[in-house]
Amino acid sequence: METLLIILLIIAGLFFSNLARVAFKHNWIAYVLSFSLVFIASGLLTYTPDWVGYEAWIEKDIGRDVFFNFFVHNVLPADRGYQFVHIFFVATYTVLMIMLISKFTDQILLVVVLYLAVVYLFYSTQIRFFMGYYAMSLAFYYWFVENKRRMALFFMVFAVLNHASLLFLLPFIYFFTVDVEVLIRRVALFLSLIVIIYFISSFFLTDETQDIVFLTYLASAEHESSLLGGLFSFLPWFISFFLIHLYAKRKISEYPSLLQDKKFQYLYRFMIISITFIGISLERQVVGQRFIIPSAIFQIMLLLYIARYNERRQNFTLAGIGTAYFLAYMFYYYILSMEITSSNVTEMVSEMLQSNIVIRLLLNP
């Protein structure tokens, strides 16, 4: 417990130091607005689809992940419930997210608005995973871009302590050690290997291995979904990946120096990592909800990063195409999904927004 407390204090110090650094280095108004927007929209909720489940975890002391358990047992005040936990986690990983965005662009508010609109349901619900996901993303960044191995190891450990499934990302360190053109050709092989692992894990999973939380994503019937449902859910992500990949490849041919640009390589490769989960996600949508949907942040940042190489006219065209695709996705996800798959995503998001403390005050002053 003492070690975990030290980790908590270190991460808190990093948060506050980076709050100050990013606020002064970038447009501090955009920084404050970005954090405030996300915190109000996602942090000040009193309902999410997982809310009751987390309350039961706290009450019955059955939390799975180390950091969540540590926080509940050692930080959470005795007279506070899950809402306090929710606020802390959302505020913390929002800072992590903004730290990540600030590494690549000054347009923090634009990235946050686009990203939150796309992942709002999951961002506000999967608090343990998003805490770990941004920590792992920063770990990869510090390791491969800034070559700060101690910082990277710290964030790796913190990520896994928040969600064991993030161990799945560690083998993808390999993706950062090969030429990007070779990497693209080998993605199909990785997809095949992951599918094979999925079937092996499903066949050999026993009662004992059920305790390994991230393996249940592969074998639990609870997470099984129809193939058509998976196709509908992740088809837009595959299309956007394919289009951005073609655009990035074109820019590489125009500006070969991008192959030596570590930040470009980081964004490009992380986008590729996410799409390798598409095979399993078609049947186990929860895998895609963990590893594909959150990665939208890398697609958005990669487009903005490439845009600096464009002429003004090219950026107008890119903005137009991007806006059209974004609006089409919003229609597809929030409206068309209800008609085709009887999805209740829109209803859940509506209920979450209605539970928001600020929205309630505005509607009922």
Could you walk me through the main structural features you see in this protein, from its secondary elements to its overall organization?
There is one protein chain. By secondary structure, this protein is mainly alpha-helical. Helix content is 75%, strand content 0%. The protein is built from 18 helices and no strands. Helix 5 packs parallel to helix 7. The N and C termini lie far apart (44 Å). The relative contact order is 0.10.
Shape: globular
- By DSSP (H or I, 4+ residues per run), the number of helices equals 18
The average pLDDT is: 80
Radius of gyration: 20 Å
* Order of SSEs: HHHHHHHHHHHHHHHHHH
Distance between the termini: 44 Å
- Overall structural class, as computed from helix and strand content, comes to mainly alpha
Helix content class: over 70%
Number of beta strands: 0
Q: What does the largest sheet look like?
A: none
Strand content: under 5%
Low-confidence stretches: 1-6, 205-224
